[in-house]
Write a structure and sequence with these properties.
The complex is a heterodimer. Chain A is α+β, with helices and mostly antiparallel strands. Chain A has helices at 3-26, 37-43, 66-73; strands at residues 60-62, 101-104, 110-111, 116-117. By secondary structure, chain B is α+β, with helices and mostly antiparallel strands. Chain B has a domain at 56-137. Chain B has seven helices and 16 strands. An eight-stranded antiparallel beta sheet of chain B has the order 1-2-6-7-10-13-14-15, covered by helices on one side. In chain B, strands 3-5-4 form a three-stranded antiparallel beta sheet, with no helix packed on it. Chain B has a three-stranded antiparallel beta sheet with strand order 8-9-16, with no helix packed on it. In chain B, a hairpin with a 2-residue loop joins strand 1 and strand 2 (11-16). The chains are: A alpha+beta, B alpha+beta.
Chain lengths: 121, 301
């Protein structure tokens, strides 16, 4: 390998190293730009990996269900000591992100309790 | 224990599952927070920050640092479609005082409104110091309300509370399991759904309440943080269950800003542990997300 080729390799390697260094430095504080992919990734919760195979059964019902009404009637205030909502593994979401349930909005409503969520007022 | 109700942050606050002493402590926390961070209260700490000159180091109050940090973390995750730098944009659309029934807007010049968001308008010199790189006004809005509710929850957990509800005008969090409702955005005063959540938060954003008109133009308070424009995406109301109220509030705003599928794409990546309940302006509803966050969902007839 003659000297000219060697110097070319060294020059290209050095330029690549500086270029990479520059990219790293540029991403040191990426949070202040909108296109901060690196930062956004670092902000991602580890829970972002959810198992598609764990799609839950349909928990959705329409209208009153006598069974749950009876159960709820025994609960003081709006508290509900049901305790079986599984949050033991918070990073393992079960999701229907791909399976939204669409339907016509109801034309009536339930009485509101203390735990009603709506537009702020 | 009787639920306590009072007005603060321009909404009705309901505190359940606390004794009187704790209720008083919480009420004081909320009033103090509002006093410092509301943009509708003159000469407070937020006003002080908003009136600082450019490129001059500003020392941050310790209590404000955490609010700012958490808001920025969420704004970044939300790709700045929601962020806390829109005070002047709000003034420009007439949201210049606390909202009330039959609101009469006063439109002010939004001289420093952020129209094309390209970067955060502040630079942190250290944890406690920042400079403003361009003119703007802070407006923490839903971030602020979410923050103080989340802080109260932390306080209650420290006190080993096993059952509590904090509901600030529809943005709420619970310790233990509670039956909660999602208000019908058309039949206001009624819930269109009820469900049970446990140890998490539920927040709702909507264009059905804080709205006003001028010269045939309709305004509401939800702006696209990237463009500064009113959002028109076909969503009337979005409710989200998440771990914290701040997260739920941010995600519900995103559903009110972005086209539905775009919001889902962003949220499924950045906020996968949420469940959502969307009411579209064509009177359709969509339910999706992480179904493990609630039980016993019932929809009214």
């Amino acid at each position: 390998m003659d000297k000219k080729v060697k110097w070319t390799i060294i020059a290209v390697s050095t330029a690549t190293a500086f270029g990479f260094g520059g990219l790293v430095l540029n991403n040191q504080n990426p949070s202040s730009t909108t296109n901060s992919t690196a930062e956004n990734n670092s902000n991602q919760d580890n829970s972002s990996v959810f198992n598609e195979n764990q799609v839950q059964q349909d928990r959705f019902s329409r209208g009153n269900r006598p069974q749950s009404d009876n159960e709820l009637a025994s609960v003081p205030s709006s508290s509900y000591d049901e305790g079986s909502i599984d949050q033991s593994s918070p990073d393992q979401g079960s999701s229907s992100w791909e399976q939204d349930q669409f339907q016509q909005a109801p034309s009536s409503g339930f009485e509101q309790g203390n735990g009603s969520s709506g537009a702020s007022r | 224990m009787k639920t306590k109700e009072f007005r603060a942050m321009n909404c009705t606050i309901k505190l359940g599952g606390m004794n009187k002493q704790v209720q008083l402590e919480v009420e004081q926390m909320i009033h103090e927070f509002e006093q410092n961070t509301s943009r509708f209260i003159p000469n407070n700490y937020l006003s002080y920050l908003n009136n600082r000159a450019l490129n001059v180091p500003i020392h941050l109050d310790e209590s404000f640092v955490d609010l700012l940090d958490q808001s920025l973390t969420l704004a970044r995750k939300a790709d700045y479609y929601v962020h806390p730098f829109m005070g002047d944009n709000m003034r420009e659309i007439g949201y210049t005082s606390s909202f009330y029934e039959n609101y009469k807007p006063i439109f002010e010049e939004g001289r420093f409104a952020i129209k094309e968001f390209s970067e955060e308008p502040i630079e942190r010199l250290s944890d406690m110091w920042l400079i403003k790189k361009r003119d703007f006004s802070f407006d923490f809005g839903g971030f602020g309300k979410g923050y103080i509710i989340d802080q109260i929850k932390k306080l209650l957990l420290k006190k080993e509370s096993s059952h509590a509800l904090i509901n600030a005008g529809g943005d709420l969090t619970v310790i233990g399991a509670y039956e909660v409702g999602i208000e019908h955005p058309i039949l206001m005063g009624k819930d269109m759904m009820k469900l049970v959540i446990k140890d998490c938060a539920l927040a709702t954003s909507g264009k059905n309440q804080r709205k006003w008109g001028k010269d045939q133009a309709a305004y509401h308070h939800i702006l696209n943080g990237r463009t500064g424009e009113l959002s028109h995406n076909g969503v009337l109301q979005a409710s989200v269950i998440a771990n914290t109220v701040m997260e739920a509030e941010t995600a519900s705003k995103l559903f009110c800003i972005l086209p539905f599928e775009d919001a889902k794409a962003l949220l499924s990546m950045r906020f996968p542990k949420i469940a959502y309940f969307i009411y579209f302006q064509n009177n359709q509803i969509a339910i999706g997300g992480d179904t493990t966050l609630y039980k016993r969902l019932e929809v009214a007839q």
